[in-house]
Amino acid sequence: MRFHVALCVALLAFPAFATNVTVGCAGGPPGDYPTIAAAIAALDLDGPHTITVSGTCSESVLLDQRERLTIQGPATVSGGAQPAFVIRNSGHILLQSLTTSGLRAAISIENRSSVTLIAVIAENATNGFAVDAFGGAAVNVNGPSGAPSIFRNSANGMRCENCVAFFSGFVTIENNTNVGLLIDSGRVETSGQQPAWTGGPAQGGPTIIRNNFNGVSVTSGGHFEMGRHNLIEDNTASGIILTSGTASLFGFSLPDGTPSSTTIQGNDRNAVSALFNSTFRAQGPTKFLNNGAAAVQFRAGVSLTHSSVVILSGATISGSVGPGISLDSTSNARLDGTTISGNSEEAVRLAHGSLLESIAGNNIPAPSVTCDGTSIVFGDLSGVAAFECAKDKKK
Predict the structure, then answer these.
(1) Residue 310 pLDDT grade (very low, low, confident, very high; cuts 50, 70, 90)
(2) pTM of this prediction?
(3) Residue 380 has pLDDT above 80, yes or no
(4) Which of 176, 239, 245, 298 suits 182 as a labelling partner, its CA being 20 to 30 A distant?
(5) Which residues pair with 188 in a beta bridge?
(6) pLDDT the model gives residue 200
């Protein structure tokens, strides 16, 4: 009995050996296994293991209670009516250089799993999400230059419901019929790209969100955060829409004056729409350019309603079809060092108990501000062209 106990203790003292295996699917060279599922079944749960896949695999791969597992291509994995990958109760999972598809989702990440996606294409989830992360999942997404991770051609690009996700560079979300990035009670952060400047090379890569219905939708207390250089453009409705959610954009200027910040442009309704107690903040040289279309209702550069708040510091709003900022239903704007000019209507429109606070250094030429008899404008108005308001008058 003592011998058996001693042997068990001795075995537990040694870690599992790493195993590298290959899978040869249709069109690829022969491998150790004909399917990814067969390779996984042959490996222990703990890893570290690496499965290198080639060809086109027609299977739905389940990873449950797996640790330290890498599945890498280049290869294509199609789940048909099911996700290509379902990952649950698993940690330190890496999917790399794979093209994935599935009807409900291309990749489903569940139950507190932690997953990294590098140079992964998730697409053609026509009834769901290219990437669906929920149940406390933690997801890191990135890609090298020339091989970004792409979520595309689906009903929705990615859902983060009660999850935490980080885009660390070179991520594109495009051509989805509904929402590019849906954050429902979750949190998504991007690090963006720092452009090259004298004394240093470019670092990282931008997050690009384009050609969806809404680019980013944040609901139910979710939070979206973008840092450095990113691009949200050409979405059918809003670049960012907040419904009881928050979003923050952070940018700066490099020592040579080059801006490293997000641009939101060419969206048919608004760059940003904030509804129902939402808060949007942009700090640094963020640009809101050429948003709004003549045939679209509620168009503006930035639109707020139902007690929402916008805080802009150093931003530019220009080329909007409609007002630069529209405030309604007791919503508030706080402007600091912000330029609002060249829009088809007034720079700021206030209605139904809304409030505009001008801090300092704003540049708002005529037509500057309009407001109804219930709204308030106050602060340092030295950079704001003359306007008439029922409760405040600047001469």
Answers:
(1) very high
(2) 0.93
(3) yes
(4) 298
(5) 165, 224
(6) 75
SS (H, E, C) the chain: CHHHHHHHHHHHCCCCCCEEEEEECECCCCCCECCHHHHHHCCCCCCCEEEEEECEEECCEEEECCEEEEEEEEEEEECCCCCCEEEECCEEEEEEEEEEECCCEEEEEECCCEEEEECCEEECCCCCEEEEEECCCEEEEECCCCCCEEEECCCEEEEEECCEEEEEECEEEECCCCEEEEEECCEEEECCEECCECCECCEECCEEEECCCEEEEEECCCEEEEECEEEEECCCCEEEEEECCEEEEECEECCCCCEECEEEECCCCEEEEEECCCEEEEECCCEEECCCCCCCCCCCCEEECCCCEEEEECCEEECCCCCCEEECCCCEEEEECCEEECCCCCCEEECCCCEEEECCCCEECCCCEEECCCCEEEECCCCECCEECCCCEEC
Neighbours of 374 (CB within 10 A): 13
* CB 248 within 8 Å of CB 225: yes
In the chain, what percentage of residues exceed pLDDT 70?
Answer: 94
Residue 183 to residue 190: CA distance in whole angstroms: 13
Query: Residue 58 has which token pair?
Result: 């027609």
Do the beta carbons of residue 335 and residue 355 sit within 8 Å? no
Residue written as token pair 């973008």: 226
Higher pLDDT, 184 or 260: 184
pLDDT classification of 258: cutoffs 50, 70, 90: confident
User: For the residues 155-178, what does the mean pLDDT come to?
Assistant: 97
CA distance 87 to 65: 9
pLDDT in tens, 357-368: 999 999 999 999
**How many CB atoms sit inside 10 A of residue 290's CB?**
20
Predicted confidence (pLDDT) at residue 309 exceeds the cutoff of 70 = yes
Cα 282 off chain centre by: 15
Distance CA 136, CA 212 (A): 26
Q: CB of 143 within 8 A of CB of 149?
A: yes
The answer, yes or no, to whether residue 295 has pLDDT greater than 90, is no
